[in-house]
Amino acid sequence: MKKLEGRTAVITGAASGIGKGIAIAFAREGAAIVVADRVNEAQAAEVLAGIRQNDVEALFVHTDVSDEESVRSMAAQALDRFGKVDILVNNAGIFTESLIENMAIDDWDRVVNTNLRGTFLCTRALIGQMLERGDGRIINIASQLGQIGGGAAGHYSASKAGVIGLTKSLAREVSTRGVLVNAIAPGPIQTPLLDSETEEWRSGKLAELPIGRFGTVDEVTPTAVLLASAGGSYYVGQTLGPNGGDVML
Predict the structure, then answer these.
(1) Which of 31, 38, 151, 191 gives 26 a disulfide partner, CB atoms 3.0 to 4.6 angstroms apart?
(2) CA atoms within 13 A on the CB side of 224
(3) Angle, helix 17-28 to helix 221-228, in steps of 10 degrees
(4) Domain boundaries, the chain
(5) Percent of the chain having pLDDT more than 70?
(6) Positions in the chain short of pLDDT 70
């Protein structure tokens, strides 16, 4: 039996990058997938095809995770289609660079609203039906920058530190009620987000990494599968770090 047979997962920001990798990895393990992303469905065609080739259902829902009504609509469509959502992966996120002294307030709000508020809104929309059944998994995608901070990334680092704090608090609230909440804090991973970085930043970051290279999406997805499956049943409020040694705890 596959590890996620009969389960349904909502994955935000699943059209590309880590979210896409997790969606396909979950599908390989038998889960039906809701792809919740702010792109249009045509732009999500590749991940939807990758899911469906594993003989599981896929539903695309255009979603702005920072908008309450959009999130409510996404949750309603997911529950209408599948009847339940067993796994929520809060992956949607954005990154921009700016020194705090120069940062536009709109830039701060956009990053924090997507990365942190979005995690809260999606969790609030779907956790109730998990608690009613006494069963569910929530996996929040944080970042190593939420643990160590990042120059010219104060808004992003703060948002991801908030995700880690939210993960711990929620885990204390709901773990005895059957819902397990954990986070993954990847280091720099080869995704479109990393491609947008300057060459100067990329060179400097490579020099800092003990492993001497950036990670791949396939080096993150096994952690998500673990936390979503029976093998992750004793992980509560943890932040797991596939980060190439950028953070050592």
Answers:
(1) 31
(2) 32
(3) 50
(4) 8-239
(5) 100
(6) none
Q: Tokens for 63?
A: 């979603």
Phi, psi of 75 (to 5 degrees): -60, -40
Q: Give the up-direction half-sphere exposure of residue 53: CA atoms within 13 A in the CB hemisphere.
A: 9
pLDDT, one tens digit per residue, over 128-163 is 999 999 999 999 999 999 999 998 999 999 999 999
List pLDDT tens digits, range 36-71.
999 999 999 999 999 999 999 999 999 999 999 999
Tokens linked to 153: 């990334």
Helices and strands (DSSP H and E) totals, the chain: 10, 7
Calpha distance 92→101 (Å, rounded): 26
Backbone angles phi, psi at 98, to 5 degrees: -170, 140
The CATH classification number of 8-239 equals 3.40.50.720
Residue given tokens 């998500």 in the structure block = 224
Among 61, 62, 117, residue whose Cα is nearest residue 85: 61
d(Cα 94, Cα 110) in Å, to the nearest integer?
8
Radius of gyration of the chain (CA): 17
Tokens for 197, please give them: 């970085």
Q: In sequence order, what are the residues at sequence separation of 6 or more whose Cβ sits closer than 8 angstroms to the Cβ of residue 166?
A: 116, 119, 120, 123, 140
Active site residues: 156
> Is the Cβ–Cβ distance between 87 and 141 less than 8 Å?
no
Phi-psi sector, 56: left (phi>0), alpha (psi -120 to 50), beta: beta
Predicted TM-score (pTM) of the model is 0.98
What is the rounded distance in angstroms from the CA atom of residue 130 to the CA atom of residue 85?
7
